C-alpha cells in the first residue's frame, strides 16, 4: 500500500488568491477597531488637528497615557501616602509597573482559568492549530507585545544599568517569542508564559513602591513573597513549559507541516526555535535569580545597609532605573548625572548603585579636626526660625543652616558678561556626547565629578581634563555632608581626590557640596583640605522639568531671562557674572550656548571666571602650597604639563625612575588582581547557573515522571 503524504489531507481546491489568504490571515489577528474610529482619526490627522497625530506617530514628549497616569494619579497618590517629594518619580514608576503587571496577570489568569490547558500542558499542543481568537484575547496578546516593544525604547531613554546587555537580550527574546507564537498559533503556550512572568514582576514592583512609603517589615515581607513567587512561576513552572515544548509536540501535534492557509505553521524545526528561545530566556531568569539571592544574602549579613538592598533590587528589576542619592536641592531629580536628555531622550544616571565610600585613616593624618566647631545635623530635620547656626543647641536646624552664604563661597563670576557652565554628578557614558557638543562650540566648562563615577569612567574624566575643562569634586557618593561626622567628610573628599588623581594625575581645588548643603563646620573642613566651595547663582531646575512637555522651553527660558538682565534670586554675593547648576538635558546645551553668545556672554570655567589659574593641584603639592594669587605666572606644575603633553602620569614621586617602576608594577598587580576577581566572579556565576539549571531540570523531570 502506498504510504500517504500528510500534506495530501491539507490540499484543498484553490478558490482564493494568495493575497486574499494573506488578508484573511491578518484580519484574524488584528485588534478589531471599528472602521469609523480609524476613519475619524485619519480625518483628524489630515485636517492637521494636533491631538490626532498622537495616535499615529511615536513622540518623545509627554503625552496622555503613562505620563498622564503618573501626573494625575500616581503623583497625588505618592503625596497621599507621605512619600518624600524627592521620591515621587520613583514611586510613580514602580506603582505604574504594579498596575500594569497586576492587570496583565489578572487577565491572563482569567483567560487560562476555564481553559483546558490550565495545569495541563498537553493542551498546549492538542487540537493544533487553534486559529479562532476572541476580541479580548487579541487585545491581551497584542497589548503585551506593544508593552515589550516600548520597553526597547525605555532602555535607550533611561540610564544603562549593570545588566543592560541582559535586558536587551531579554526584550529581543521576548518580542521574538510573542510574535512567533501569535503568528504561528502557539498562543496557548504564550498565555501560560505571560502568567508565569507577570506575577513576580507585579510583586517586585509593589515591594519597591512600599519601600518609599512604608519601609521595613511590610516591604521586606512583600519582597519575600516575591522571591517565592519568582522561584515557583519563573523557575519551576516556566521550566515545566520548556519541558513540554521539547517533549509533548511529538505526542500530540497531528502533523508537523507548513501550510499557512489552514493555520499550520509547525514544521518540525520550529519546535527547536521556540525551545531555544525559551531556554535562552530561562538562563536570563537564572542570572536574575542569582542576583535575588545576592540581595537576600546582604539582607541577612548586612541588615543595617538597607540602601544596598534597594540598589540590588534595581539590578534585578529590568523595568526601572538605578537608585540615586537624592536631596532637597534636587527634589524630583532621580538621576545623578552631569548631562542628559531632551524630554527623557538621554536620561543619564550613574550606572552603579550607591557606592560605599573608601576609608583610609592615613587621610586623616595631615588634617587637624580638633578645632572644628559644629554639630552633625540629621538630614532634613527642619527649618529653625532665627537659628544661630553655629550654636550647639541647633543641631536640628538642617534646612536653616545648610545654605548660608559665607564670604569665601563662590556663587558667580565677578565680571559682567561672563558665564561659567558647570555640570554635576558625572561622569557617565552620556558625558561623551556633552564633551562633543562643548568641543564643537569651543566652550570650556566645569565638571563637578563624583569619585565613584570617576573610577568607573576614568577615560571620560581624562578627556575632559585634556580638553581644557575644569575638574571639580562633588564628593565620592553624593551624601548630605552636614549629616556626616568630620572624619566621614574627609573620607568622602579624599576618596574623590584619589579617584580623580588616578584618572588625570592631578587633584581638584574646587568642590561643590552635594545639594549645595554645607554649614560652617563642613566649610571649615573643606577649607582645611585646601578647597574652595563652588556654588551657583543660576538654577534652571532642569532635573525637575526635563520630563515635562514644555521642559525644553522652561530650561532655555531661565538662561534667556538671566542673560537678558532678570535678577537671580540665588545671587548671594550680587555677582555681575553667572555660574549655573545643571544636570539633565545635554541636548539643550547647543541652544543655551547660542543664546548666551547672542547676549554677548563669554563662557569660561568657574576658576577662570574668578581669575584663578590653578584649578587643580599636582599630587606632590601640599595644601599649604595652594596659592590664590592673581599674577600671570603659570600655576600648573611641570608634572601636570607632562601629563597633558604625554598622556602619562605617576600617582606619586614624580621624576623618579625607580618610583615610576614601582608604580607601574603596582598598577600591573592591581590590573592582574582585578582580572582574577572578574574571572572568579564569572566562573562563580557560570557554576551557580549550571547548578540552578540542573536542579530545575531535575525537579521538572521528577514532576513529569510522577
TrEMBL record:
Keywords: Endoplasmic reticulum, Glycoprotein, Membrane, Transferase, Transmembrane, Transmembrane helix
Record field: compositional bias (Acidic residues): 332-342, 627-637
Annotated segments matching region Disordered: 321-360, 610-637, 654-680
Gene Ontology cellular-component annotations: endoplasmic reticulum membrane
InterPro entries per record: Glyco_hydro/deAcase_b/a-brl, Lag1/Lac1-like, NODB_dom, TLC-dom
UniProt record similarity statement: Belongs to the sphingosine N-acyltransferase family.
Record-given protein name: Uncharacterized protein
Organism field: Mucor plumbeus
Amino acid at each position: 500500500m502506498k504510504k500517504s503524504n500528510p500534506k495530501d489531507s491539507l490540499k484543498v481546491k484553490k478558490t482564493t488568491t494568495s493575497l486574499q489568504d494573506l488578508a484573511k490571515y491578518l484580519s484574524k489577528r488584528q485588534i478589531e477597531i471599528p472602521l469609523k474610529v480609524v476613519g475619524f482619526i485619519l480625518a483628524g490627522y489630515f485636517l492637521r488637528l494636533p491631538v490626532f497625530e498622537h495616535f499615529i506617530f511615536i513622540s518623545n514628549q509627554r503625552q496622555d497615557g503613562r505620563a498622564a497616569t503618573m501626573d494625575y494619579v500616581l503623583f497625588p497618590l505618592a503625596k497621599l501616602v507621605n512619600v518624600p517629594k524627592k521620591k515621587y518619580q520613583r514611586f510613580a514608576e514602580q506603582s505604574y509597573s504594579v498596575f500594569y503587571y497586576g492587570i496583565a496577570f489578572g487577565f491572563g489568569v482569567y483567560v487560562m482559568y476555564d481553559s483546558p490547558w490550565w495545569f495541563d500542558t498537553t493542551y498546549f499542543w492538542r487540537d493544533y492549530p487553534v486559529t479562532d481568537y476572541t476580541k479580548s484575547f487579541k487585545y491581551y496578546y497584542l497589548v503585551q507585545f506593544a508593552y515589550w516593544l516600548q520597553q526597547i525604547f525605555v532602555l535607550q531613554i533611561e540610564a544603562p544599568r549593570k545588566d543592560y546587555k541582559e535586558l536587551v537580550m531579554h526584550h529581543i527574546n521576548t518580542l521574538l517569542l510573542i510574535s512567533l507564537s501569535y503568528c504561528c498559533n502557539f498562543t496557548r503556550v504564550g498565555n501560560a508564559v505571560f502568567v508565569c512572568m507577570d506575577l513576580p514582576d507585579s510583586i517586585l514592583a509593589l515591594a519597591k513602591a512600599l519601600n518609599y512609603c512604608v519601609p521595613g517589615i511590610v516591604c521586606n515581607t512583600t519582597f519575600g513573597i516575591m522571591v517565592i513567587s519568582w522561584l515557583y512561576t519563573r523557575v519551576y513552572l516556566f521550566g515545566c513549559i520548556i519541558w513540554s515544548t521539547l517533549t509533548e509536540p511529538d505526542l500530540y501535534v497531528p502533523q508537523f507541516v507548513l501550510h499557512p492557509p489552514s493555520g499550520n505553521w509547525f514544521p518540525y524545526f520550529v519546535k527547536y526555535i521556540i525551545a531555544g528561545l525559551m531556554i535562552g530566556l530561562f538562563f536570563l531568569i537564572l542570572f536574575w535569580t542569582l542576583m535575588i539571592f545576592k540581595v537576600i544574602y546582604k539582607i541577612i549579613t548586612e541588615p543595617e545597609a538597607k540602601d544596598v538592598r534597594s540598589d540590588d533590587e534595581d539590578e534585578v528589576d529590568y523595568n526601572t532605573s538605578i537608585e540615586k542619592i537624592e536631596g532637597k536641592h534636587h527634589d524630583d531629580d532621580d538621576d545623578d548625572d552631569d548631562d542628559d536628555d531632551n524630554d527623557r531622550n538621554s536620561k543619564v544616571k550613574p550606572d552603579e548603585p550607591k557606592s560605599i565610600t573608601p576609608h583610609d585613616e592615613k587621610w586623616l593624618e595631615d588634617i587637624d579636626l580638633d578645632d572644628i566647631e559644629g554639630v552633625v545635623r540629621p538630614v532634613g530635620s527642619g527649618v529653625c526660625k532665627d537659628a544661630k547656626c553655629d550654636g550647639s543647641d541647633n543641631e536640628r536646624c538642617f534646612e536653616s543652616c545648610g545654605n548660608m552664604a559665607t564670604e569665601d563661597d563662590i556663587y558667580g563670576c565677578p565680571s559682567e558678561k561672563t558665564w561659567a557652565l558647570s555640570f554635576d554628578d558625572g561622569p557617565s557614558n552620556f558625558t561623551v556626547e556633552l564633551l562633543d557638543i562643548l568641543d564643537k562650540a569651543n566652550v570650556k566648562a566645569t565638571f563637578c565629578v563624583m569619585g565613584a563615577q570617576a573610577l568607573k569612567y576614568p577615560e571620560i574624566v581624562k578627556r575632559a581634563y585634556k580638553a581644557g575643562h575644569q575638574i571639580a569634586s562633588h564628593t565620592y557618593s553624593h551624601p548630605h555632608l552636614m549629616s556626616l561626622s568630620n572624619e566621614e567628610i574627609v573620607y568622602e573628599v579624599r576618596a574623590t581626590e584619589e579617584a580623580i588623581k588616578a584618572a588625570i594625575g592631578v587633584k581638584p581645588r574646587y568642590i561643590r557640596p552635594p545639594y549645595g548643603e554645607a554649614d560652617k563646620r563642613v566649610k571649615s573642613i573643606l577649607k582645611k583640605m585646601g578647597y574652595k566651595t563652588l556654588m551657583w547663582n543660576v538654577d534652571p531646575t532642569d532635573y525637575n522639568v526635563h520630563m515635562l512637555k514644555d521642559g525644553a522651553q522652561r530650561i532655555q527660558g531661565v538662561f534667556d531671562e538671566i542673560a537678558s538682565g532678570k535678577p537671580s534670586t540665588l545671587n548671594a554675593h550680587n555677582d555681575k557674572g553667572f555660574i549655573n547648576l545643571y544636570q539633565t538635558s545635554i541636548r539643550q546645551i547647543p541652544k543655551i550656548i547660542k543664546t548666551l553668545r547672542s547676549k554677548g556672554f563669554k563662557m569660561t570655567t568657574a576658576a577662570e571666571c574668578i581669575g584663578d589659574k590653578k584649578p587643580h593641584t599636582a599630587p606632590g603639592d601640599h595644601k599649604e602650597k595652594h596659592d590664590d594669587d592673581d599674577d600671570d605666572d603659570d600655576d600648573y606644575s611641570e608634572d601636570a604639563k607632562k601629563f597633558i603633553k604625554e598622556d602619562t602620569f605617576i600617582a606619586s614621586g614624580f621624576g623618579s625612575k625607580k618610583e615610576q617602576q614601582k608604580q607601574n608594577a603596582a598598577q600591573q598587580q592591581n590590573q592582574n588582581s582585578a582580572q582574577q576577581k572578574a574571572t572568579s566572579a564569572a566562573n562563580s556565576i557560570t557554576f551557580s547557573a549550571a547548578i540552578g539549571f540542573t536542579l530545575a531540570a531535575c525537579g521538572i523531570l521528577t514532576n513529569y515522571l510522577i
